[in-house]
Specification:
Blueprint (H helix, E strand, L loop, with lengths): L8 E6 L7 H9 L1 E6 L9 H14 L4 E4 L12 H14 L5 E3 L2 H4 L18 H9 L4 E3 L17 H9 L14 H14 L5 E3 H4 L5 H10 L3 E4 L4 H10 L1 H10 L4 E2 L8 H16 L3 E4 L2 E6 L5 H15 L10
Parallel strand pairs: 1-2, 2-3, 4-5, 5-6, 6-7, 7-8
Antiparallel strand pairs: 9-10
Helix pairs in contact: 10-11
The chain binds zinc ion.
């Protein structure tokens, strides 16, 4: 029988913005390497601070920590913005960053001064950035758009976690802000990047904001050979689908086993991290009854084949982020 503590794992979506030694302990206890993700969000510290924290973890225990860099959109109207971002990213990659994160402030927050429309990721403004990332073979992790629920009233949302999040963060609840571009537009803008830059490795964080339908994800995997996703914070949506379509969800994980990466999205929260590691493992490796805050009632684990688990938890992250130097020890 496979054991959680001994099975090698990469948590491809993790956030820690101040140094906490408990993560190294959890990494050793559970045999994990984390990819710590810098993010251009106002609730996170300044980018330089985030990057220094991420580097401190890598320096302390390179076998357990790696990181994904990012850049600030602040000052984007400045003519030197692209140049300074390229310089910054080059330095980050030289220091060991395995990819670059792009956040939902693009598409949902930042306005163009010319006409006060939202700056979308498919705007020609970003062409030089994607040419740079593509030519330099730097994988890009995109959190673009939000769960489809974000565009619905709270009572119509399918996930308890989404209900709680958007009640607490009304500024991100698109339903309350009809000026925010529609869900469909967010997805189209992201898909456009994969059409336009077929050599770019593009990872959709949070199931690429297509969490509500594994069939929609499958369509993108079929269409774009450069598209990957992480499961972070959205596994509940697939668990929900598996309540009524158990074989469909299970077959999806098996058919696209090389496209999906495990990730927790634990954010300065060691308790969430360990409970996710334990509960997610039960869902993937057994056919026992599972529970989640996101799903009403219990649901059955999908008991994936060992080779699929190995891809999901371990080898995919290594091939998707080639800079990841994996030498983890239990
Ligand atoms: Zn995250």
């Amino acid at each position: 029988m496979l054991e959680l503590e001994h099975f090698p794992k990469i948590d491809a979506h993790f956030h820690s913005t101040f140094y906490n030694p408990v993560y190294e302990k959890i990494a050793k206890d559970y045999h994990v390497k984390y990819i710590n993700i810098n993010t251009d969000a106002s609730v996170f510290p300044r980018m330089e601070v985030q990057e220094n924290v991420a580097l401190a973890y890598v320096k302390k225990a390179p076998e357990h920590f790696a990181y994904i860099a990012s850049f600030e959109m602040q000052g984007w109207e400045n003519p030197n913005w692209h140049r300074s971002v390229f310089d910054r990213l080059k330095k980050s990659v030289d220091q060991g960053a395995v990819g670059v994160k792009i956040w939902k402030n693009i598409g949902m927050e930042i306005l163009k001064p010319s006409d006060s429309s939202f700056l979308m990721i498919d705007d020609p403004f970003f062409d030089p950035l994607f040419v740079y990332l593509s030519e330099n073979k730097i994988p890009v992790l995109t959190h673009l758009g939000e769960p489809k629920n974000c565009w619905l009233p709270i009572q119509e949302m399918t996930s308890e976690r989404n209900k709680v999040y958007y009640t607490k963060n009304p500024e991100f609840h698109a339903y309350l802000h009809p000026e925010i571009p529609a869900y469909k537009r967010q997805i189209e803008a992201r898909d456009y990047l994969m059409d336009k830059y077929p050599d770019l490795t593009l990872i959709g964080a949070h199931l690429g904001s297509l969490e509500w339908s594994y069939e929609e994800l499958a369509k993108r995997f079929d269409r774009y050979s450069n598209f990957y996703v992480d499961l972070s914070s959205r596994l509940g949506h697939l668990q929900m689908q598996s309540v009524n379509d158990y074989e469909g969800v299970r077959d999806f994980f098996i058919k696209y086993a090389d496209r999906i990466m495990y990730g927790t999205d634990a954010y300065n929260n060691p308790e969430k991290l360990t409970s996710s590691l334990i509960n997610d493992w039960k869902y993937f490796t057994t056919n026992k009854q599972c529970e989640s805050i996101e799903v009403n009632g219990t649901f059955k684990g999908i008991h994936l084949p060992e080779e699929v688990l190995y891809q999901l938890y371990y080898t995919n992250a290594q091939s998707i982020y080639p800079g990841l130097n994996v030498e983890i020890h239990s």
